Protein 1
Amino acid sequence: MGQSTAFETVYCKVCLSHAQVSIKEFCHDIRYIFLFYVIGDISTTVFALENELGYEANFIISGFLDNYGYYSLVVIKLLFLCICFLDYLYLKKRGHPSTWNITRHSLSILGVLVVTNNLLVIGGAGSPLDKLLYGL
């Protein structure tokens, strides 16, 4: 393996074993989470809200949006990515790559479903989740 720079690796000072973890590998692993759950959800949510095509169904997120605006959505997503990184560190330290793979693939699928739901709302079909839960 070649030399690594300070930006490519970080030493896990939270973990007892000080395992070396690759930031580059983490960014590669979460690329679909970032694309769908972060960028896709933020952009479709903002578009729907700005054009009055829908509403934020999550009451916690809705409260943050009402009080702090769209920047709160970005901050919440960044906090979510920080939690993903801590999960990545923990599972790497424990030697559970399959658990990390299940986690990241599940979150990627969740991101695709969230964006699909938002696009259906934007397109006028309504939210399948609302129809399922509330019979709307």
Note: Residues 30-134 form one domain.
Protein 2
Amino acid sequence: MEKTSQYSVLSTQYSLSRLALTRILVSLLTHEEAIVAGIGNTNFDLAATGRRPQNFYMLGSMGLALPIALGGAVAQPERRFFALEGDGSLLMNLGCLATIASVAPRNLTIIIWDNGLYQITGKQHAATSSVTDLVGVAKAAGIANSAWAADEADFTRRLSQALITDGPHLIAAHVDDAPGAARPERDPVLLRDRYMRGIQKATSNE
């Protein structure tokens, strides 16, 4: 009962800027790390930070950012991969957390933007707005290095640690519901081919 009460307080504080946190993420990447961004505002904000060839912008494939990033992390263990996902999309595919915990890729970090809404489809409330704590779910699935970022400084600190320590890591943040800042091209072949070229040559992340 105590956990539910504590989370209910947290779930009302969707004040962090999703775009600002996305910019922090990109600014810390210096070794051609790959980012797989889920649908909607998650990849819209990533597109606004600049078109890195190592960014994969998903179109329509809800809930698959984590599995795609996991596949890349397993195939290229020398490169760090980031799965960037919204709360609604993760709720659609919670089983992937157990799979990631089982595989335990040291080079994978999951970042979750939680605003308690299915924002793109009309701002319907998601389970995370009331009863579901995604960090708690991730820990229960076996991803021990899972935590909420309290603010931008805490997010930066946790992300910096994830870049130099073994994962998998999961960092979640309660974010705003601002409109996406940009749009990637709606051309699946172009997005796929550019990403594949971007990760073609694996590089050291040390």
Note: The chain has nine helices and eight strands.
